[in-house]
Amino acid sequence: MSKKAKTAIIPTRSEDFSEWYQQVIKAADMAENSPVRGCMIIKPYGYAVWENIQRIFDKRIKEGGVQNAYFPLLIPLEFISREAEHVDGFAKECAVVTHHRLEKDVNGKLQLAESAKLEEPYVIRPTSETIIGDAMARWIQSYRDLPMKLNQWCNVMRWEMRPRMFLRSSEFLWQEGHNAFETKDEAKEDAYKMLDAYADFAENSLAIPVIKGEKTDDERFPGADITLTIEAMMLDGKALQAGTSHYLGQNFSKSCGIKFQSREGGEDFAHTTSWGISTRLIGAMIMTHGDDDGMIMPPRVAPYHVGIIPIIRDYADSDKILNYARDLMDKLKAQGLCVKLDESDVRTGNKMWGMIKQGVPIRVEIGAREVENGTLTHVRRDLGRDSKTSCSVDVFVNSVNDILDLIHNELFTRALKLRDKNIKNIADLSELEAFFKDGNIGFARMDVKLIEDDDYKRICKDYSLTSRCKPFCDNGEKVLVGKAY
Amino acid sequence: MSKKAKTAIIPTRSEDFSEWYQQVIKAADMAENSPVRGCMIIKPYGYAVWENIQRIFDKRIKEGGVQNAYFPLLIPLEFISREAEHVDGFAKECAVVTHHRLEKDVNGKLQLAESAKLEEPYVIRPTSETIIGDAMARWIQSYRDLPMKLNQWCNVMRWEMRPRMFLRSSEFLWQEGHNAFETKDEAKEDAYKMLDAYADFAENSLAIPVIKGEKTDDERFPGADITLTIEAMMLDGKALQAGTSHYLGQNFSKSCGIKFQSREGGEDFAHTTSWGISTRLIGAMIMTHGDDDGMIMPPRVAPYHVGIIPIIRDYADSDKILNYARDLMDKLKAQGLCVKLDESDVRTGNKMWGMIKQGVPIRVEIGAREVENGTLTHVRRDLGRDSKTSCSVDVFVNSVNDILDLIHNELFTRALKLRDKNIKNIADLSELEAFFKDGNIGFARMDVKLIEDDDYKRICKDYSLTSRCKPFCDNGEKVLVGKAY
Questions:
Q1: pTM of the model
Q2: To probe the interface with B, which of A61, A85, A92 has the most B CB atoms within 10 Å?
Q3: ipTM score for this prediction
Q4: What domains sit in chain A, N to C, each tagged with a CATH number?
């Protein structure tokens, strides 16, 4: 075995984290870059994770009274313009639609038809506050129509100059929730409630520990009064904003005209919130749980919980082993688990490596000996290649859900330990600078007042740092500072 | 009561079918036109139907080995161009993206940044054969990679000059399946199999009877060797193409380069299929099942199976009635049913009309008398306003699924009878012309050879007719002709 073959992913995390990330995605067959600048193709194995994210979170928000709907992909430029008047720091990198027809030129080649130029261009939605706000203004007449809680699962576009799969792509998939309320208190409470939902989802479904907090003024969503965030620490010590929830005050309701007749009979503007998570979470999962052999799927969103590999040394045993494996698969499926039995004709070693690189939480191996003994051999992906355990089929079937919970807890605890080890308390700005100058990874935790100092801006610029959030657990008195994705 | 108030929808179907359709959508609160030309907003009640369609059909295709994935929204113009070289009759009404940035002009008004013009424009996908074919060309190396069955649920755009909600909008939602096979036989078989899946879904989930058949040459999807369709007849006698499945031969695999090493060791082009259904199906549901009081939801995709209305005449009974109603709701939900209990403070009459217009399959009324007797009153939406039945709560809970099946069957049978009554056997072209000249509604069924006559084209043009399909049940010897949506 050559030295390089010791890990499935080359380079390793410590050699080149950024390239490791790309290679994990490739080895797990989750996504790839497309011929469209900055846009990715989400391949079936990656998309299955997104479907699980959607399924779990969609159920949760519906239980909270949110209704799904669908709003147009295109936003009239005028809507964006109106928003831009109200909002500084509005992002302008958008895909703009200017024509509505193609035609053949004199050589029979297709080109855009100049004659079909739109009077007013449209922008492909970078987010839908303006067009949903416009609809809410029509739909909300009285306090009886409130609260109104709407969500859509959709694609959005922001033209990205330095795209990275899942983390930052020109097109991505997300959910955007838009809620409107009678009062400031209700709306603020809702923004916090949705942040709790995100934190709970990240920790209990994705096994990603997150820090809940409020964004500082300069990091707030343009147009929001309060931006709440969950921040996660990746394996390389960088921060990743994993979900945001905004209290928008009456800013959007005023620019969109979301007025209602109040209980007292007067007219008032609604208080609105918006909240979103995206396919970026899949990037966060990779950079939280992956190792030098590839992906490790957190069990609760894994496309397959269990992968079964038949090990056939003697062709005569083939039927016996496959039937035994299929029987096991049926038993596991009957428990609601997703199972992949690899019956393909590729080499057994390749099948094993395939499952390792895809991060299937539990790998089961079944050979002639297992069939004879009524047993199976199983391997937890999170514990490394040599953690093999043998037991009877019944014992496995009865304990598989517990094992999956153990894997979830192990992944979560591991990530939590790494994160907490890499949060450094900082007393002043010179210590902040020294920390990042020395090449340390992680977050600096310091008094929030320090960010008002001009030197803070200079240090942030020099070391590519940003204020990540003012954690709730510090009562807003501290701020976490770090490099970020 | 004024004469007009006798139906909930004004105008009625017979007065103005087209306007009736718009009013049903409005009264049921399913969708509305948006400020974006030709694009609709799908409101929660309409979107819930689409979610049910997705859930049921997605399960089915996954059982058939199809994997979901996600491909970019934007298609490079070059891809479309390449396709256009192969394909005549390519639709050219597309939304074209030409710029990637906005900027403020001297007056602070937002406009597109001329400096951010794309070298090559992109087209918003009207369908994804080209970009998925391009990916398949990379992913398929050998016969071992086949069959490859991919699907995506997504939005697509085709610039529509005469948009109608659900039926023809510039943006719509759909699923597009793209399968690749080793052999012609397998691919053709798959195209037929997917058509069967659509027909089964239309009939058994949406209660829409459909005719399976093949499109004639002039109606075939550009680029397909065979286009299969399910055609439904709407209440006004017009046809609606409710789903299509194409055998694309090697046309796309040749233009996209989907080559593979064959079992014999040579190189071959894959045989591909594509197949789609869209939000148009919701339009078909409305125009198949609706009546002059509004929508009638086919139970298996209805957002609510049962709507409960508490009838509180005496405020003192309020708690008693509401608790009784909530208890019923819990019992029904425990059976997996979706239930709406309307506790809002609007007038009882308005609640009833709301449920009628939304087409909730079963309406349950609970007043003080029902609570006293341990009974309830239920009304089937499909049988009209006076079909009230009283029974005990237990009897209702035990029979509610059967009642929903009865409603499904009634809707299906009703539509089937109307359709079959309105298919007229036609002997020659003069009879065809006479049939539509006389203002008859429905389909003409005639010998397929008649469409080769030049006079057929003239008649089609004069009466806005098209060949709908050559029904399988006629062995391809007949063709159905009619007006269509």
A1: 0.96
A2: A92
A3: 0.96
A4: 17-96+128-289 (3.30.930.10), 306-399 (3.40.50.800), 423-482 (3.30.110)
